[in-house]
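Issue 218. Parser rejects a valid record. Input:
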Amino acid sequence: MSRLVTNAIRSTAASSDAMTIDSAGKPAFPNGGVGKILQVKNAIKTDTQSVTNDTFTDVAGLSLSITPSSSSNKILFRGYVALCGESNTSLAIRIFRDSTEIGKSTADSTAANNSTATAKPLNVSTSTTKNQMHQLQFEVLDSPADTNAHTYKVQFAETHLHNYQGVIIYVNRPHTGMGSDQHGVISSTTVMEVAA
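Output the parser choked on:
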């Protein structure tokens, strides 16, 4: 068996070490090694919110602003939103970097099954009862390709308006309300800067 014994690794063309190793054998990457998480921000929504019909609306309290330290770094945007609606309605979320929708499906969408024909929401779940909660989850590794501040956010709506008029969709609560036998839930988002 071969063994390399060293406390640092550096390219012949570099002026500093790419990796150092301490006396316990633990490696460190002084220049921010690839895949290293450089910053993390989180938001938790504990209150409720509602929207009517197919009007995609920002989920209040889940927007996060982050500024990449390098234009080559990526932003990992992940989270979940707890939704509930009328029986047999479709619940949808869309995610954005500023005003640009990211992580959206490229599957076909027509006016016959989606009131917003070009929406192609990230995730859809159909409820069967008015007190059944659905946790819609997402995770997207985004490449803003600059060092500007960006806001990542989530929107929600009901997307089968041709079947139902005046449908109300709720965040963090059952459609039937908060009775003694019902419990509220939370929703959450996280953004992380990942070194390139």
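Fixed in the parser; the record now loads. The domain at 33-194 is CATH 2.60.120.1340 (Jelly Rolls).
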